[in-house]
Design goal:
Layout lengths: L1 H17 L1 E4 L3 E9 L5 E9 L2 E5 L3 H8 L6 H13 L3 E2 L5 E6 L3 H13 L1
Antiparallel strand pairs: 1-2, 2-3, 3-4, 4-6, 5-6
Length: 119
């Protein structure tokens, strides 16, 4: 259907205009057009460890909740861990959403961690 093809092109253009990638010393910060409940855009950090990548939120998701007065209780952590498992992500011990992957899975890992950060 031609309308779907036009829609696909439009969405790709939208994403292309809205996705930002900043290079840092040993990592990249990818900012996506996904928003959190408090209207922050989601950023994900990608660190290269040879042929392996660590994709994470830098602990920002739970830190922002805490800064807004949301208590980080055991129940909240359980909920966040369940959310992470849904996307194949782990809630690491320092309250960071993290996924380790290889190059061929990098884009998926970025979106998985971003989904956890946005939810």
């Amino acid at each position: 259907m031609e309308r779907c093809s036009t829609l696909r092109t439009s969405i790709l253009s939208y994403l292309g205009d809205k996705v930002r990638v900043r290079e840092r010393e040993n990592s990249c910060v990818v900012t996506l057009p996904l928003e959190t409940a408090d209207k922050r855009r989601v950023s994900v950090i990608v660190e290269s460890m040879g042929s392996t990548f660590i994709v994470h939120d830098g602990g920002k998701t739970l830190a922002e909740l805490f800064c807004q007065g949301v208590p980080i209780t055991a129940s909240r952590l359980d909920s966040q861990e369940a959310l992470a498992r849904t996307y194949g992500v782990e809630l690491f011990k320092n309250k960071t959403f993290r996924k380790i992957c290889v190059s061929s899975d990098l884009e998926r890992a970025i979106f998985d961690v971003a989904q956890c950060s946005a939810s």
